[in-house]
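Notebook entry, structure prediction.
Reason for the run: the old model in the group folder had no record of what sequence produced it. Starting over properly, with the input documented here first.
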Amino acid sequence: MTDREEYKDVVKLYCSLEKQLTNEYIEGKLEEWCRGVEENTEDQLNKYLLVREETEKAEEGFIRVNFDPILVRYLREVKYLLIQDYAVPERA
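New structure, fully documented this time:
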């Protein structure tokens, strides 16, 4: 059955359709991710990186890093997207 010409045509059509659908899905997910980056990082990137916290134990307070875990997640995702040669927006 696999030697028939009709089978080869169906397999070729299936492969091209599967590739097209996969590419459309990936592009859609990447566009959705880019919109999420724009929405979620706007406020985070405008904050000061170091923040002084006043405490009872220290008069001058402690300095802590004000780096949101969302930004860490986006940095990790950008790293893997760049490894796979996807176009990443400048904001990310």
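Summary: The mean pLDDT is 86.
The old model has been moved to the deprecated folder.
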